[in-house]
Amino acid sequence: MAAEGSTVLGFYSLAMAAILKDQLPAAHAARFPRFPLPVARLARLAVDQLHQKQGLGERLLMDALQRCARLAEEIGMVGVIVDAKHERARGWYERYEFERFPDAPLTLWLPTGVITRLCGA
């Protein structure tokens, strides 16, 4: 959460989830086994309207991804998924290398290797 005094400027929430390899983009699916794959779901990420377009969303996303990078080392997971609220939000996530699920264009994924690179870990 990002706050200024008692005012919440932005926040995110993470939850653990599982996906099937068939849900992933084809370029990634082949390297995984058939059983459910552990992922972190970026369940929410929001910035107060008065504080948008100031880089806060990116800072929150990077904080979330850094947490996920640590989780991947500790408990193992293959990536992060997010359900974009609309096409504009999908485009925002795609700037950070998230990829669309083939059968759900507003659902995106970011593999742990990319997360590690983005976080400089």
Automatic annotation (TrEMBL):
> What GO MF terms are annotated?
acyltransferase activity, transferring groups other than amino-acyl groups
Q: Which InterPro entries match?
A: Acyl_CoA_acyltransferase, GNAT_dom
Q: Does the keyword Repeat apply?
A: no
User: Domain N-acetyltransferase: where?
Assistant: 1-113
* A Pfam family of this chain: Acetyltransf_7
Q: Which positions, given as ranges, span the membrane?
A: none
Q: Which UniProt keywords apply?
A: Acyltransferase, Repressor, Toxin-antitoxin system, Transferase
Indicate whether Nucleus appears among the record's keywords.
no
According to UniProt, the reaction catalysed is: glycyl-tRNA(Gly) + acetyl-CoA = N-acetylglycyl-tRNA(Gly) + CoA + H(+)
Q: Which family does it belong to?
A: Belongs to the acetyltransferase family. GNAT subfamily.
Q: Which PANTHER family match?
A: ACETYLTRANSFERASE, ACETYLTRANSFERASE-RELATED
Name of the protein described by the UniProt record: GNAT family N-acetyltransferase
| Highest classification ranks of the organism | Bacteria, Pseudomonadati, Pseudomonadota, Gammaproteobacteria, Chromatiales
